[in-house]
Amino acid sequence: MSDQSDPNKPKKTIADLFQQLALAQEEEQSPAAPPKPMESYKFWKTQPVPSFDEKVESEGPIDTSKTPETVRQEPYPIHSSFEWTTLDLESDHDLDQLYELLYDHYVEDHDATFRFAYSRNFFNWALKPTGWRQDWHIGVRVKDTGRLIAFISGVPCDLTIRGRDIKSVEINFLCVHKQLRSKRLAPLLIKEVTRRVNLQNIWQALYSSGTVLPRPVSTCRYGHRPLNWSKLYEVGFSSLPPNETKASMVAKTTLGSEPKTKGWRKMEEKDISTVWKLYDAWRDRYDISQIMTKDDIKHWIYGGHQQDGKVIHTFVVEDEETKEVTDYISFYVLPFTVLQNPKHKQIGIAYLYYYASTVGLGKTNKDEENQELLKKRLKSLVNDAMIEAKKVDIDVFNALSSQDNTLFLDDLKFGAGDGFLNYYVFNYRTSHIDGGMDETDHDFGKNGSGVGVVLL
């Protein structure tokens, strides 16, 4: 992340980069800063979200007065220079325009050295799950030229929050052209996607931000594990720590060449039912989780429709005697394009996704004996997943402090990042959910978290 022409300018760390990439376009605020007064949030103070100082006496929806019949039937008014559009992700033209908008204007580091390298496969995976609706892929175009200058998406994402099932959507990819961010298009996009979701009799939505908005359900911290330290150093993505050499850093981050877990193999279509049962039982460990059907597992975790440029990678462990699948683990891939570097054009980035093991089924993180067994199992599974990631040219493996990740982050040499991810549920009031950090709300905790849902 340094200026390659200035050898004396210090390089930033992986953590610095992901902190920058976590910044939102609207109402930015450091996650570590105290909340601003509610009145300063011009948009959010008008929405059904809890205030920072609100005491939660009972959990549940905030506004229950509306019905689809009372929802505005027409799109919200927009400036005469612009027009609403519904993107057709079956169209190469619309996919190309979405790629260009996100590539140039979504998030990037302050030095404009790295950018997310989206692909058609990634859009098809992230925006077209089971039950997806085209009218929830909302754009704004310049009326005269047809240029796409803003976007927001919603996809089905039913939740369980502390035992209560909730019909919901996940809101993502809110993006406004950099030169138009003073036009208050972001709040308008949020209102429009809310309107379209409400027309389907859905009143809650899950979303995340690197910034503090009213009011997070939970906050998790990023962890980053270099898999190809030399390359990361060469592109300015990682720095050389004090009292270390390049050789020592390579040695510290080197993994084995092959997985060691007995029965380890790639997930196959025949495993979908078993993985679904594992997933569904495993999510009881958490206060907030996503409800998935077998079709959802096929899309989100198996991803068998993908061929070249595979986004989701999933592996299972099969008992050699019973032939039963006892564990699965997955990660998804979203690379960075590297600018202004003559040697490297891309950095491979993987994100730990969902996993489960029979070791933890029916147990909670209060069971200390089981936690030790689970810690050992997860260390083995994640280590082997990173080996598989290295085989597909992944240079950095990321994981949040969500799920039971804090059981292995330190031992597997994940560096604690400066980036935080805040989770929000629109039109829903709930008390705080443990995000896997210690009592300082800064360092990784030691015993897992209450967050069982993974957002892209």
What's the CATH H-level superfamily name of the largest domain?
Answer: Gcn5-related N-acetyltransferase (GNAT)
Q: Tally the structural domains.
A: 2
- Which strand order does the major sheet show? 2-4-5-8-9-19-10-18-17-14-13-11
Q: Report the CATH C-level class of the largest domain.
A: Alpha Beta
CATH topology of the largest domain: Aminopeptidase
> Measured on Cα atoms, how large is the radius of gyration?
22 Å
Mean pLDDT: 89
- Which shape, going by the Cα principal axes? globular
Count of helical stretches: 9
Helix and strand pattern: HEEHEHEEEEEHEEHHEHEHEEEEEHEEE
Q: First CA to last CA: what distance?
A: 23 Å
Give your account of this protein's structure.
The strands form four sheets. Strands 2-4-5-8-9-19-10-18-17-14-13-11 form a twelve-stranded mixed sheet, sandwiched between helices. The longest helix is centred in the last third of the chain and has 24 residues, at 368-391. It has two domains: 14-24 and 60-209, Gcn5-related N-acetyltransferase (GNAT) (Aminopeptidase); 218-429, Gcn5-related N-acetyltransferase (GNAT) (Aminopeptidase). Helix content is 22%, strand content 24%. It has nine helices and 20 strands. It has 456 residues and is α+β, with helices and mostly antiparallel strands. Belongs to the NMT family. This is Glycylpeptide N-tetradecanoyltransferase. Pfam families: NMT (PF01233), NMT_C (PF02799). It catalyses: N-terminal glycyl-[protein] + tetradecanoyl-CoA = N-tetradecanoylglycyl-[protein] + CoA + H(+).
